[in-house]
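User: I'm new to structure prediction. If I give you an amino acid sequence, what do you actually give back? Let's try with this one:
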Amino acid sequence: MKYSLNITDIAEEDILSTVRYIAKVLKNPIAANNLLDEIEKHEKKLEETPGIYPFVHDEYLAEKGLKYVIIKNFLLFFTIDKKNRIVTIIRFLYGRRDWKNILRSNQNVNNLFGIFNDGKLSSEDFIKEKALEKEMEKSETEADF
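Assistant: Good question. You get back a string of structure tokens that encode the predicted 3D arrangement of the chain. For your 145 residues, that looks like this:
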């Protein structure tokens, strides 16, 4: 049975801004499309077999269940909710950035792990809340038309 794929807003922005930068600033739309193809290929693998990827090389973040995929010069970070069969893509970062500090300080990631709210918010609850928010936004937008 496949896993559902959930991409956080910040991860989506990471991907879009990276592709835009490669296509427009570096003036290499072919490389930008190739990167998108690679991302999509790995997203499909995440839906099928997310457990094949390693945990991050940071004890604190690994204990929180954070895994990663190397995609060219970038790292795609995600968690797995085995009970609900959901893979959540958290960030997409250039591999030479200080990803440990970025992820440790990122409020989205901290909320996802339930660090804020005295640990009362589990990752599963956070994912459900975000999905519900998106559904509500979608229905409000459709109601406006």
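You can read the tokens as a compact description of the fold. Here is one thing that stands out. The radius of gyration is 16 Å.
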